[in-house]
Design brief:
Number of domains: 1
Largest sheet: 7 strands, mixed
Number of helices: 5
Order of helices and strands: EHHHEEEHEHEE
Radius of gyration: 15 Å
Structural class: alpha+beta
Strand order of the largest sheet: 1-2-3-4-5-7-6
Distance between the termini: 39 Å
Shape: globular
Length: about 170
């Protein structure tokens, strides 16, 4: 298996690779925490790279020395879904790791970069809409569980998630 080469800022040219990673990661890794029927209708909303994130300058990919994208994630000051901006707050966005590359520190490395950058720009609180199975990952990075939430997708899908928060200041 190829070695991890680097974590770099994503761009529009990464759209296909990120979409492929999201499809693979979410379909496999969410299967233990979510009903198959729910995943069948929700995954099409989750599996496409968000072009706005890709050009934000705060979205990253982890790439092997062979150019294979095995992780992604980032942060924005805009709240997902509404675009609302609250001074001193930011939001963790669209993390995924290739199922064969989990537990190798890739997600932690991307998250650490997000936290460090957000803190350096004056962000005091990071929010996250975590999937049910990723809650322990974020908790290990000092995020606190606030409550269970339903993330709306499409017109009739309420995707169960966990609202989490990390104080940076």
């Amino acid at each position: 298996m190829a070695a991890l080469a680097l974590i770099r800022t994503a761009g529009l040219t990464d759209a296909d690779a990120v979409s492929a990673l999201l499809r693979l990661s979410y379909s496999e890794l969410l299967a233990n925490s979510y009903d198959t029927g729910l995943l069948r209708v929700a995954l099409p909303y989750m599996n496409k790279a968000n072009l706005t994130l890709l050009v934000s300058g705060t979205y990253y990919v982890a790439e092997t020395d062979r150019g294979i994208v095995v992780g992604c994630g980032g942060w924005t000051i805009e709240k997902p879904g509404s675009g609302e901006i609250v001074e001193g707050e930011a939001h963790i966005r669209h993390f995924a790791i290739h199922p064969e590359w989990t537990r190798r520190g890739i997600g932690t490395s991307i998250l650490t970069r997000c936290i460090d950058e957000a803190r350096s720009l004056g962000v005091r609180t990071l929010h996250c809409f975590s999937t049910l199975n990723a809650e322990p990952f974020y908790r290990a990075a000092n995020f606190q569980t606030i409550r269970r939430i339903d993330v709306p997708m499409g017109q009739a899908i309420a995707f169960p998630a966990v609202l989490m928060q990390c104080q940076l200041a």
